[in-house]
Structures are given as structure tokens and as C-alpha cells.
Specification:
Pfam families: Cyclin_C, Cyclin_N. Keywords: Cell cycle, Cell division, Cyclin. Residues 323-438 form the Cyclin C-terminal domain. Helix content is 55%, strand content 0%. It is mainly alpha-helical. The longest helix is centred in the middle third of the chain and has 18 residues, at 222-239. The chain has helices at residues 3-9, 11-14, 16-27, 34-37, 69-79, 86-92, 108-113, 121-124, 146-149, 152-157, 164-176, 193-206, 222-239, 243-259, 267-282, 289-295, 302-315, 325-333, 340-353, 364-379, 386-392, 396-409, 413-416, 418-423, 432-443. It has two domains: 84-98 and 209-315, Cyclin A, domain 1; 114-207 and 323-443, Cyclin-like (Cyclin A, domain 1). It contains 25 helices and no strands.
């Protein structure tokens, strides 16, 4: 059995972040309300227990010939009064103009081609003696520096560059860092974790979409992609699907649009089909095709969706095993002993990045590390330690340019990504969006 298959075989336990969140929310009823207290997140502690299990074999085939009474009730419960035509309405009122998140002056090919993990992999694993390097961590006050926060061109041209200094620093940490092995934490498979995540880094490069595919889509602009994703986030939330499903859905959409030109009326079909495929891959119980039809307000028939599903999966060569950001978040969270506040805030920042076209060509592991770094700065959790460098494979100096871009995404949240803002304003997510909004008001 291959390393990635080992990781997938442990998927039910690996997806512990959702279980940890649910348990912590039950055990610790100290949700933060910034509108009342104006304080940072309260430490929720950690837990080693596994959350409520779902029946594994309850819906393996997903053959919904005729919905049962229970399935019908479930469908009604899932969708409720959901405005299924929300996407069409939003697209109808969308002015065809350059979206505020667009930055055509950015050389996006540079973003796509700065994946230098393999180039330096042999050097990082070299056992030759190296001189120890003293590394002075940059203070989080650098985030307040206006001259740095608005140097967009410099940021994008220097993303993910491994200098000689970075290589030597990573080699030093890999040699000196002693990983703390938790015997109870079988989800990270300590004996195979390095091999598993090395393979995941290969896959994230292999399944990376083209960051310039919009140039070959005559009927589309980046703003239309943002409308589609905003609608999908609402649908994803109503179905109570896993975060992995959302990220895989967006990856499938971007990869499909990278190889196939579509007309604007088919854009919603592409999004619904990608969600249908991703839920089949990630979920134990996924939405039925009838629910997908209702989701698109009967704009497409079940036959059209199933036909689109076959076409999409063929265009993608049946490659669905993209390692999304959640896998890398679990890895780097180990440096914080799975601190719930940091993880929740990082999840919010990660979802914001899916709305911005500048992040299409950036590796998930890189985005996760930058979001995690920024979360720690906001929560005043301390510096980027050797443990964080070890588990993320990125130094603080590398992350600061991408942190700058994420900070730009945090401006005017209700205007640019209202669905995500409202989602994370709930107590379930510790009102992370309101916390970030207040933090930005104080530091900008």
C-alpha cells in the first residue's frame, strides 16, 4: 500500500479537526463575542477524544432511485428556505467590469512557476555538514508597515523563493528538531508522515490549475468566478459538508476551466457538478442528484448533471486526489498542539483566499503556512518557531510576502466576501470574522 493510500485509509480519523471543534465547543462554552467584550479569542484547550462517528456504510452506492420518506425529510431539512436561484440573480446583477480583487498587472506565470520544492529537495536532504545559522525572527509589527503592505509587485515577484539562506535554515531545523511523538495520535502516522507529506507536495504541484485560464474564457471574467464561489459557499454551508469538499470543489472548477472553454450559461452547471463530484469523493453521505437539481433551481435536469459529471471527470483524467489545505493545516497545527483558536482563525483566512484569483497558482501548503502565521500574529501567540518551520517547510521570511496579500483580502470583508463573513460570524466559528474585522480596524 502506497504512502498516500495509507493517509487516505486513515481519513476518518485524520479529519479530526472537525471532531475537535465539535468536542471543544461542547466542553468549553466560552465563545468569544467581540461586540460585547472586545477581547482576543479565549484559549479553549485541547482534547484527544474523537468526535461523534457517522455510519460508514449507510450510503456507499449513492444510488437514489426513489427518495425514501427519510431522504425526503433530510432534503427539506438540508435546504430549508434556501434561495436556489441566488447564483443566477447575482450573476444577472453583476456589471461586467474588472473586479476589485483582480490585479492584471501581476505576472501570474511567476506565481505558478515558483514551485521550487523539487528543485531544492535534494539539497534539503543533503547530510553534508553546514554552519549553524542564527535566525532573527521578524516582529509582527512589520505587518503595520505601510511601505511593506502595499508593495504588491515586489510581493508577487518574490513569492515562494528558496534562497540559499532558506535552504540552510531548513536543513538545520530538519537536522536538529526532535519531533514530539504522541502515541495516541495515530492520525498523523508518525512513521510514514514525512513520506506521506512529501507525496502530497508532489500532488499539489501536479494538480495545480492554470492561474491565467481566464484569458482563454471569452465569456468570463474573474468577478464571475467570485460570484460562483460565493454561491457555492452558501450551498456548502446549507448541506453541512466538510471543508475538504469545498476546497476540492473549487480546485475541480479551476482545473476544468483551465482545459475547457465554456459559455457563461454553463458556469453554474460546472460549479454544481464539481460540488457533486467532490462530495462523492470526500463525504460519507453526499447529496443526491435530486438535491443538486433543486440546488440549481431546476435550471438543469438530473440527466444533464450526470452527463456533465461524466464529461468533467474524463476531462480531469479521473484525477481527484488533490491534497487540499486542510491536510497541511493539520500538519502545521501540530506545532501549536492543535490550538483551537488558531485553527479556527486560519480556516477563516483560508476560505477568504478562494475568492481571490491571485491565489489560484499558489500552492495550498504555502497558503496554509501564511494563514497560520497571520493567525498567530493576530492572536499574539508568539514567533514562528522551529517547530512551525519543521512542520510547514516554510521560513518566516518566505511567508511575509504572502501574508501581505492575505491582509489585502481582509479589507472590506462584507463587500467582497459577505457569505464567508456571515458564516464565520456565527458562534460555531467563535465569531472569527468579527474578530478579524476589529483587528484590522485597530492595525490599519
Amino acid at each position: 500500500m502506497g504512502s498516500y493510500e495509507v493517509q487516505k485509509s486513515l481519513s476518518h480519523r485524520i479529519k479530526q479537526d472537525e471532531n475537535i471543534d465539535l468536542i471543544a465547543q461542547k466542553q468549553y462554552k466560552c465563545h468569544l463575542d467581540l461586540s460585547e467584550h472586545n477581547e482576543n479569542f479565549q484559549t479553549s484547550g485541547n482534547t484527544s477524544k474523537i468526535g461523534t462517528k457517522r455510519t460508514v456504510l449507510s450510503d456507499v452506492s449513492n444510488n437514489h432511485i426513489k427518495p425514501s420518506f427519510i431522504q425526503s425529510k433530510l432534503c427539506n431539512h438540508r435546504l430549508g428556505n434556501f434561495e436556489a436561484a441566488g447564483f443566477s440573480e447575482a450573476l444577472r446583477h453583476l456589471h461586467v467590469k474588472e473586479n476589485s480583487l483582480e490585479h492584471d498587472n501581476i505576472n501570474k506565470k511567476d506565481l505558478a512557476n515558483h514551485c521550487l520544492y523539487h528543485r531544492f529537495r535534494n539539497e534539503l536532504n543533503d547530510d553534508s555538514e553546514d554552519k549553524k545559522i542564527s535566525y532573527n525572527f521578524v516582529s509582527s509589527d512589520i505587518l503595520k508597515d505601510e511601505s511593506i503592505r502595499h508593495r504588491t509587485d515586489d510581493v508577487c515577484n518574490h513569492l515562494l523563493k528558496y534562497t540559499k539562506f532558506d535552504i540552510m535554515e531548513l536543513k538545520r531545523i530538519r537536522k536538529e528538531f526532535i519531533e514530539k511523538v504522541d502515541e495516541w495520535d495515530i492520525t498523523m502516522a508518525h512513521e510514514y508522515s514525512d513520506e506521506i507529506f512529501a507525496y502530497m507536495r508532489e500532488l499539489e504541484i501536479k494538480y495545480k490549475p492554470s492561474p491565467t485560464y481566464i484569458d482563454h474564457q471569452p465569456d468570463m471574467q474573474w468577478s464571475m468566478r467570485s460570484v460562483l464561489i460565493d454561491w457555492l459557499i452558501q450551498v456548502h454551508s446549507r448541506f453541512h459538508l466538510l471543508p475538504e469538499t469545498l476546497y476540492l470543489t473549487i480546485n475541480l472548477i479551476d482545473r476544468f476551466l483551465s482545459v475547457k472553454v465554456i459559455s457563461l450559461p454553463k458556469l453554474q452547471l460546472v460549479g454544481a457538478t464539481a460540488l457533486f463530484l467532490a462530495s462523492k469523493y470526500e463525504e460519507i453521505i453526499c447529496p443526491s442528484v435530486h438535491e443538486i437539481v433543486y440546488m440549481v433551481d431546476h435550471g438543469y435536469s438530473s440527466e444533464e448533471i450526470l452527463k456533465a459529471e461524466r464529461y468533467m471527470i474524463n476531462m480531469l483524467n479521473f484525477d481527484l486526489g488533490w491534497p487540499g489545505p486542510m491536510s497541511f493545516l493539520r500538519r502545521v497545527s501540530k506545532a501549536d498542539e492543535y490550538d483551537l483558536d488558531t485553527r479556527t482563525l486560519t480556516k477563516y483566512l483560508l476560505e477568504l483566499t478562494v475568492m481571490d484569483s491571485r491565489f489560484i497558482g499558489i500552492l495550498p501548503s504555502f497558503i496554509v503556512a501564511a494563514a497560520h502565521y497571520l493567525s498567530r500574529c493576530m492572536l499574539e501567540k508568539g514567533s514562528w518557531t522551529d517547530a512551525h518551520v519543521y512542520y510547514s517547510s516554510y521560513t518566516e521570511r518566505q511567508l511575509l510576502p504572502l501574508v501581505n496579500i492575505i491582509l489585502q483580502c481582509l479589507e472590506s470583508p462584507k463587500e467582497h466576501h459577505n457569505a464567508i463573513y456571515e458564516k464565520y460570524a456565527d458562534k460555531k466559528f467563535k465569531k472569527a470574522s468579527k474578530f478579524v474585522e476589529n483587528w484590522m480596524a485597530e492595525h490599519t
